[in-house]
Design brief:
It is a lipid-anchor; GPI-anchor. By secondary structure, the chain is mostly beta strands. It has helices at about 1-15, 45-55, 340-345, 410-420; strands at about 40-45, 60-65, 70-75, 80, 85-90, 95, 105-110, 120, 125-135, 150-160, 170-175, 185, 190-200, 205-210, 215-220, 225, 235, 240, 245-250, 255, 260-265, 270, 280, 285, 300-305, 305-310, 325, 330, 355-360, 365-370. The structure holds 2-acetamido-2-deoxy-beta-D-glucopyranose (9 copies).
C-alpha cells in the first residue's frame, strides 16, 4: 500500500497547493501529527479509545476499530489519516460519523458491520482503496462531497441502493458485487487499468458506462443490460456470463487483448461487435439458449487463441477471419447452420491449431493433427519451417488464452500517470 499512499499524498498536495502547479510537491506534504497521533498501528475496541483517535486532526498510522462494545463510532474532528482506517466486526455498531474526514491515504475498509445503517463521510474525497464489505443494513454511503481520487473501489455485499458519491473516473480496480439493491450503475468511469467487475447485484441491474474508453479485464455477471459506446479497447479479457441481457453490443470495441467469453446468457439473441478486429486469446461462446446467430463480428480478422462455439445456430459467419492461432471447435446442435464455410477456412490453412471440428446442419467434420499449433494461444507459425508432422497423436489440447498478469511495474507506471491526470 506504500505506493498508493504516496499517490494519495501527491493527490492531496495537488489540492492543497494548487492543482495548477501539478509538480512534485511530495516532500511538502510530509504530514506532521500531534503527539499521540502518530503510531505504527492502533486498535480501538471501546469508546474511550475511539475518542483518543478522534482527538487527532491528523493521524499518521493504521487505525483499527472493532468489537461488540461500540454502538456509535464518532470520529468527528479527524481530517486526515495517513495510513489505513479499518472498522470491522463491530456487530452492534449502528452509526459511524466521520464528517470531517477528507483523506485516508491507505485503505478505508468497512467490513462485517451487520447493523450499520448510518454512515457520515461528508467530506471524504480521497482514499487509496475504498472497500465496503458485508454491510447489509447500509443503504447510503454518506459521501456528500463524493470521492474523486482512489486507486481501488470495492463495494461488496451491502444494502446500498446506488453508487452516489463515487466519482472516480480513472483507477485500477472497480468491483461492485452482491449488492442486491443496486439497480443502476451509471458511472463516469473513463479507464480502469486492472479489473472492472460488476457481478451479482440486483437481477435487474442496468450498467451504463458511456464514458469508458479503455479497460483491462472486464467481467460482467448477472447484469440486465450494458452500454459502453465509447469503449474501444479491452487490453486483457472480456467475460459476459450468467446475464439477462438480450443484446450484447460493443459498438466501438476494436480489440480484446486476451480472451472473449460469452456464456450462459439465457436471453441473449444478438451479438454486435461491428468494429472488433482482433481477439488476442480464445473466443468462447456457449450455453446461450436463445442465440441463433453469431454473425455479429463482421470485421474480426485474427484470433490469437482457440475458438469454441456451441449452441443451436441458424447462421453465423466470420467474413473477415483470416487467422486462428489455436484450434477451432464449432458445434451447432439444431438449426440451419452448415459447416461449409468453416471447412473452407480450415482447408485454406487459416486455422493454425491442432484441432478442427465442426458439426452443423449438413453433418460434421473433424480432424486433429500435431501440427505446430501452440499451447499458449499466441501466434504459431514459428521459426523452423520444417513442418513437424509427427503422426497424428491425440494431443488436441484446447488452446486457452494465456493468463499472463500485467507486470506490476507497468501497472505502476500507468497508475503514476493517472495520479497526475486525476485533476
Ligand atoms: C513546485 O510548486 C511549488 C509550490 O507551488 C513551488 O514552490 C516550486 O517552485 C515548484 N517547483 C517547480 C520545479 O516548478
Ligand atoms: C456480537 O459479537 C459478539 C462477539 O463476537 C458475540 O458474542 C455476540 O453474540 C454478537 N452479537 C450479535 C448481536 O450478533
Ligand atoms: C491499454 O493499452 C493501451 C496501449 O498499450 C494503453 O494506452 C491503455 O492505457 C491501456 N488501458 C488500460 C485500461 O490498461
Ligand atoms: C462518448 O463520449 C462522449 C463524450 O463524453 C459522449 O458525449 C457520447 O454520448 C458517448 N458516446 C456514446 C455512444 O455513449
Ligand atoms: C467448448 O465449450 C463447451 C461449453 O460451452 C465445453 O463443454 C467444451 O468442453 C468446450 N470444448 C473445448 C474443445 O474446449
Ligand atoms: C440468421 O439467423 C437469424 C436467427 O434465426 C435470423 O434472424 C437472420 O435473419 C439470419 N440472417 C441471415 C443472413 O440469414
Ligand atoms: C483441416 O485442415 C487440415 C489441413 O489443411 C486438413 O488436413 C484436415 O483434413 C482438415 N479437416 C477437415 C475436417 O476438413
Ligand atoms: C508462448 O508464448 C511465449 C510468450 O509470448 C512465446 O515466447 C512462445 O514462443 C509461445 N509458444 C508457442 C509454442 O508459440
Ligand atoms: C502548471 C503545469 O505544469 N501544468 C501541467 C500539469 O500537467 C499537465 C499534464 O501533464 C500539463 O499539461 C500541464 O501543463
Amino acid at each position: 500500500m506504500q505506493f498508493s499512499k504516496l499517490l494519495a499524498i501527491a493527490a492531496v498536495t495537488g489540492v492543497t497547493f494548487g492543482a495548477s502547479s501539478n509538480n512534485s510537491t511530495l516532500t511538502a506534504a510530509t504530514p506532521t501529527a500531534a503527539s499521540g497521533c502518530s503510531f505504527s498501528s492502533f486498535t480501538a475496541t471501546n469508546n474511550a479509545q475511539v475518542a483518543s483517535v478522534a482527538a487527532c486532526a491528523t493521524v499518521v498510522g493504521d487505525v483499527t476499530i472493532q468489537g461488540a462494545g461500540l454502538d456509535t463510532i464518532n470520529l468527528n474532528g479527524v481530517k486526515q489519516i495517513f495510513g489505513d482506517l479499518n472498522i470491522k466486526n463491530a456487530n452492534l455498531t449502528t452509526a459511524i460519523n466521520a464528517p470531517d474526514l477528507q483523506l485516508v491515504s491507505g485503505d478505508l475498509n468497512l467490513e462485517e458491520l451487520q447493523i450499520l445503517s448510518s454512515l457520515n463521510l461528508a467530506q471524504l474525497t480521497t482514499v487509496g482503496t475504498l472497500q465496503f464489505n458485508a454491510l447489509p443494513a447500509l443503504e447510503r454511503a454518506g459521501l456528500t462531497s463524493g470521492i474523486t481520487t482512489a486507486d481501488s473501489i470495492v463495494i461488496s455485499d451491502t444494502g446500498l441502493t446506488s453508487l452516489e458519491g463515487i466519482n472516480v473516473f480513472k483507477l485500477k480496480v472497480f468491483n461492485v458485487n452482491n449488492n442486491k439493491d443496486i439497480e443502476t450503475i451509471d458511472s463516469g468511469l473513463i479507464a480502469v487499468t486492472d479489473t472492472l467487475s460488476i457481478s451479482y447485484n440486483s437481477d435487474n441491474v442496468d450498467v451504463i458506462l458511456n464514458q469508458l474508453t479503455s479497460a483491462n479485464n472486464l467481467d460482467l455477471q448477472r447484469i440486465n443490460s450494458f452500454s459502453a459506446g465509447n469503449l474501444s479497447a479491452i487490453n486483457d479479457s472480456l467475460v459476459i456470463t450468467s446475464s439477462n441481457v438480450d443484446k450484447i453490443e460493443f459498438k466501438n470495441l476494436e480489440s480484446v487483448g486476451k480472451s472473449l467469453t460469452i456464456d450462459q446468457n439465457g436471453e441473449v439473441e444478438e451479438l454486435d461487435f461491428p468494429k472488433l478486429t482482433s481477439v488476442g486469446g480464445a473466443l468462447q461462446i456457449g450455453d446461450n439458449d436463445q442465440l441463433k446467430s453469431f454473425s455479429g463480428f463482421p470485421k474480426l480478422k485474427t484470433i490469437g487463441g482457440s475458438v469454441n462455439i456451441s449452441g443451436s445456430f441458424d447462421n453465423g459467419t466470420f467474413p473477415a477471419l483470416s487467422s486462428v492461432a489455436g484450434g477451432f471447435t464449432l458445434s451447432s446442435e439444431d438449426g440451419d447452420l452448415s459447416c461449409k464455410e468453416f471447412d473452407k477456412l480450415n482447408s485454406s490453412g487459416d486455422i493454425k491449431g491442432d484441432k478442427y471440428a465442426c458439426s452443423g446442419a449438413g453433418g460434421s467434420s473433424s480432424s486433429s493433427s500435431s501440427k505446430k499449433g501452440n499451447s499458449n494461444g499466441s501466434s504459431s507459425d514459428s521459426s523452423t519451417s520444417s513442418g513437424s508432422r509427427s503422426s497424428a497423436s491425440s494431443s488436441s489440447r484446447s488452446n486457452d488464452a494465456p493468463s499472463v498478469q500485467s507486470s506490476l511495474s507497468s501497472i505502476m507506471v500507468l497508475f503514476a500517470s493517472f495520479g497526475i491526470v486525476l485533476y
